[in-house]
Amino acid sequence: MNLIFRDATETDLPELVEMLEDDFLAKGREDLSIPLNPAYLEFLERVSKNPDIRLIVAELAHELVGMLQITFIPQFHYIGSWTCELECVRVSSQRRGQGIGGKMLHWSIEQARKRGCRSVQLTTNLSRIDAIRFYEKEGFAYSHAGMKFSIQ
After folding, report:
1. What string of H, E and C letters represents the secondary structure of the chain?
2. pTM of the predicted structure, to 2 decimals
3. pLDDT, position 145
């Protein structure tokens, strides 16, 4: 499988928003309207100016099959080390079970190594039993309790 990883472009955004929305927890959370909600474009503009944040797409034969946001966070602890955080990890629902997610994680871990990160972290909703099983299979382990405060 020859996956290509690259930074997302403006033309990718509608398909990426659909990929986010194609999720049992995210139904109704994203804005699928066309023209695209300007907030998505503003996000991409902000990210493109920050070398520590990237919105990545995974392509297979010119088809978008996955996405993730990779953020490099400087940490004061561990003598000023870096941590890599993964968000918005998605594989197209038509392509799940084909090894794409594992390749995306391995690519991300390699990017973290190149940046000198001490760890790679991610969060997933506790109701995502299959995702949790997948992440554990890929070597991720429970080490901290995550908590969120929703501002609405």
Report:
1. CCCEEEECCHHHHHHHHHHHHCCCCCCCCCCCCCCCCHHHHHHHHHHHCCCCEEEEEEEECCEEEEEEEEEEEECCHHHHCEEEEEEEEEECCCCCCCCHHHHHHHHHHHHHHHCCEEEEEECCCCCCHHHHHHHHHCCCCCCCCCCCCCCC
2. 0.93
3. 83
